[in-house]
Specification:
By secondary structure, the protein is an alpha+beta fold. The protein is 25% helix and 35% strand.
């Protein structure tokens, strides 16, 4: 068997209104090495060249393309309709259950439930290594009193956008209620993104407590010393008592919130962390000026070690930056977080204190993935975020 040509791929799944799988397509992307003979493999019913008029030879599982395009995309429709997640979507109007097409144009109290669980018939490790982001959009002219526990809510024009993040290895039971008039809505979008948190979670209630903790930390604008102590306590607890310490984690979060509330700090820029255990806060340094803005970052790294960094903002290079430097830049520039906790790609959740990455490349990959998945609003948001950091680099 000939070796396949290096590539990237995006898998997208067309679901029915009830969450059942209609078809699965894979977009295969060949970059700078695409010139000449391209060899690939896949169990496809049919294939389509999305870039050029070059013919695709599909023989069994083998795909061959002779192309001199600088970049080539081809789409293949998979034989299988099995995916790592089992998704069930149900619709209720005034308590009675309806099919999706039956409630279009109706008025009353609507309830939508989405159940996401592991598909036990699927073989592979995607369920344990990919996070899901589910997004729904409601027209506020037609939908009032929207109740969506655990959702991140953002206003997009006259629409209210609800976003849910489901971590790897976890399912979700989502419930949304609203009072509707002549109801209609856009399709539900569910995106999968690789994310490895490198932690073991055994307690079912833990993620709820972690979410509460992150929400509290993200809203804190005070507490220098107490905040650092609380972050250290959180890191120590995550390492030693994670499996059985849900109550301790909750108490620590409450203590952190109470202690920090007593110490108002007007120049706090950011406080938070990521999935590796890295937690920190940022504030302007003494002597920081408009021409030479400087910050102090203090916290605990992913290994539980305390750190302190002095960062000169004008020296940050988004094409080779740490996650701390990008949080500094995000806060200093005031980049809109779109109703969430970050303007940065989700891959930053895997970065340690000293890891460096080309964030502009990460943004471009995220934008391409969103466009291929038909998520134009998310693609536009990441384009906006990337542009803010490009503008910063161009002004230097």
């Amino acid at each position: 068997m000939e070796a396949n040509t290096d590539k990237e791929e995006v898998v997208y799944v067309n679901l029915g209104n009830d969450g059942s799988v209609r078809e699965i397509n894979v977009v295969n992307i060949f970059g700078g090495n695409a010139e000449g003979l391209i060899i690939d493999y896949g169990k496809y019913l049919d294939v389509r060249n999305m870039t050029t008029t070059d013919t695709i030879d599909l023989s069994g599982d083998a795909i061959k393309i002779n192309s001199f395009a600088e970049k080539l995309y081809y789409e293949g429709k998979l034989e299988s309709t099995r995916m790592p997640w089992d998704i069930q979507i149900r619709y209720f109007l005034d308590v009675r259950e309806y099919a999706a097409e039956e409630i279009v144009g109706k008025s009353g109290e609507i309830k939508i439930t989405i159940c996401i669980a592991q598909n036990q018939k699927y073989r592979g490790d995607f369920y344990d290594n990919y996070a899901l982001q589910a997004s729904l959009s409601f027209d506020t002219d037609k939908c009032k009193n929207i109740v969506a526990p655990d959702a991140t809510v953002a206003n997009v024009g006259s629409n209210k956008q609800l976003t849910y993040t489901i971590l790897p290895g976890k399912g979700a039971d989502i419930e949304i209620t609203a009072e509707v008039s002549e109801f209609e809505m856009d399709g539900i979008s569910i995106n999968g993104i690789p994310l490895n948190l490198n932690i073991e979670v055994d307690d079912e209630e833990l993620m709820g407590q972690v979410t509460e903790l992150l929400d509290a930390i993200s809203q804190l604008d005070d507490g220098v010393a107490e905040l650092q102590d609380g972050a250290s306590d959180l890191q120590d607890g995550a390492q030693s008592d994670l499996k059985g310490g849900v109550n301790d984690l909750k108490d620590g979060a409450e203590q952190l919130h109470r202690g920090a509330a007593d110490m108002k700090t007007d120049d706090m820029l950011y406080s938070g962390g990521n999935g590796t255990g890295l937690s920190f806060y940022i504030k302007y340094a003494e002597g920081s000026t408009e021409d030479n803005p400087t910050v102090i970052a203090k916290g605990v790294d992913e290994n539980g070690n305390e750190f302190e960094q002095t960062i000169h903002i004008n020296k940050i290079n988004p094409k080779c930056a740490t996650v701390v430097e990008m949080r500094v830049l995000e806060a200093h520039l005031g980049v809109d977080k779109n109703g969430g906790l970050s303007s940065l790609p989700l891959e930053t959740g895997e970065m340690g204190l000293h890891d460096r990455a080309d964030f502009m490349d990460m943004f471009q990959k995220q934008i391409s993935a969103m466009r291929l998945l038909g998520q134009q609003k998310l693609a536009a948001y990441y384009q906006y975020s990337m542009q803010a950091y490009w503008d910063f680099m161009n002004k230097k």
